[in-house]
Structure formats: structure tokens, C-alpha cells
From TrEMBL:
This is Riboflavin synthase. Catalyzes the dismutation of two molecules of 6,7-dimethyl-8-ribityllumazine, resulting in the formation of riboflavin and 5-amino-6-(D-ribitylamino)uracil. Pathway: Cofactor biosynthesis; riboflavin biosynthesis; riboflavin from 2-hydroxy-3-oxobutyl phosphate and 5-amino-6-(D-ribitylamino)uracil: step 2/2. It holds the Pfam family Lum_binding. The keyword Glycoprotein does not apply. It catalyses: 2 6,7-dimethyl-8-(1-D-ribityl)lumazine + H(+) = 5-amino-6-(D-ribitylamino)uracil + riboflavin. Residues 1-106, 107-203 form the Lumazine-binding domain. Its EC number is 2.5.1.9. Signal peptide: none annotated. The keyword Protease does not apply. One of its GO terms (molecular function) is riboflavin synthase activity. It comes from the Bacteria. Lumazine-binding repeats lie at residues 1-106, 107-203.
Length: 214
């Protein structure tokens, strides 16, 4: 479990595309093995630990000299923007929240629900407003003043529309995460508040039970 408070702005060192048998594949597709640089998040990381990369929970397979490797399944590549990473890409990195630690953002699973696209950036004196498109099916989970995770960053929704939403980015977020460098047209990973999904599921189950009791 994560909090959406990015600890480090890391960098992709290498991307190796592999086929279903684990062999090299010349063209992108199937699974991939990422090697990323993140001295802070790797200082206490080992084989089997979790690190969120742009909001995607990945399992560490190896660490060395401030770098770590992680294997990414085809399902993850298809549902997130990790498939577009290349050497030199900057990424948001976060270690899991320690039990008893402060929950600075909100409960983030590291399970991406879909991808959006930055459609507009409106700069201001102290902050910047960013509008992001919503894929079909996610709009019902996004509410004004609610929480959403964008590329692993816990943010508060300013305005929730039918097919998009806006967030306000403070200088710290702009300077310490990828959201400060992404431009209109760039895709981002989205994870909606898991509590909203559970509530929807429970209410749906309750409605079916009531209907069956008639």
C-alpha cells in the first residue's frame, strides 16, 4: 500500500522487451524488464520488495549501485503508460508505506485503473491548473474535492466533469514529480479512490439482494 507522496524522481536506465518464454523480443510487446535509477528508494530495498513506478506497484528483482530491476507483465503494459517508457524517461518512485507511518496522501494500491491524457495546462503565480481526460467508466469514481492518483501522485480533484477533471499543482509537486515536465498530449496513469469502488460494489450487491427478496 502506498500514499501517493512521491519520494524520488528516478530515471529509466534500460528497457528489455521479452516474449512469453522469457527470451528477447526485437519489437515492443509482451512483457518487459525495466532497470531504473533511484538511489533513495533502493537504499533499503531488496529482492521481492515493492516500489511504485509512476503509480504502478512493481516487484524488485535485483538492486545494485542505486538501481533496481523489475519485470512488467503484458497486462500492466496494456493498462498503464509504462509501455511507453524509454531509457532516459523520468519516473515517480515511492516505497510502500511502513505500518504505523503517516498517511500523507491517501490510500493508493498501485493498481492502475486506466490512462488519461493531459489536455491543458494553465499556469498561475503560485500553482498550475492541469486538466486531464478520463477514460470511459472512470468518471463515476471522480468527485470534486475527492482524491485521485496521477502517475503515482496523490492529488485532490478541483473540478470533475463528464470526461475530464482538473487538479492544482503546487511548486513542490511541479519540481519533484514528472507532472512538472509532462505536456498536453502526454498520457498519465490514473488510479481512482479504492473506497469509491468498494462502495459501488456493496451498494450494487445490496440492490440485488433487495430485488431478490421481493
Amino acid at each position: 500500500m502506498f500514499t501517493g507522496i512521491v519520494e524520488e524522481l528516478g530515471e529509466v536506465v534500460a528497457v528489455e522487451h521479452i516474449d512469453g518464454d522469457g527470451g528477447p523480443q526485437p519489437q515492443p510487446g509482451g512483457a518487459a524488464r525495466l532497470r531504473l535509477r533511484g538511489p533513495l528508494v533502493t537504499e533499503d530495498a531488496g529482492h521481492g520488495d515493492s516500489i511504485a513506478v509512476n503509480g504502478v506497484c512493481l516487484t524488485v528483482t535485483d538492486t545494485a549501485r542505486g538501481e533496481f530491476t523489475a519485470d512488467v507483465m503484458a497486462e500492466t503494459l496494456n493498462r498503464s503508460v509504462l509501455g511507453s517508457l524509454v531509457p532516459g524517461s523520468r519516473v515517480n518512485l515511492e516505497r510502500p508505506m511502513a505500518l504505523g507511518g503517516r498517511l500523507g496522501g491517501h490510500l493508493v494500491q498501485g493498481h492502475v485503473d486506466g490512462t488519461g491524457v493531459i489536455s491543458e495546462r494553465i499556469p498561475g503565480e503560485q500553482w498550475e491548473i492541469v486538466r486531464i481526460t478520463l477514460p470511459p467508466g472512470l468518471a463515476r469514481y471522480v468527485v470534486e474535492k475527492g482524491s485521485i492518483t496521477v502517475d503515482g501522485v496523490s492529488l485532490t480533484v478541483v473540478e470533475a466533469a463528464g470526461d475530464s477533471f482538473t487538479v492544482s499543482l503546487i511548486p513542490t509537486t511541479l519540481g519533484l514529480t514528472t507532472l512538472g515536465i509532462k505536456q498536453p498530449g502526454d498520457p498519465v496513469n490514473l488510479e481512482v479512490d479504492v473506497l469509491a469502488k468498494y462502495v459501488e460494489r456493496l451498494l450494487g450487491a445490496g440492490a440485488h439482494t433487495a430485488e431478490a427478496a421481493k
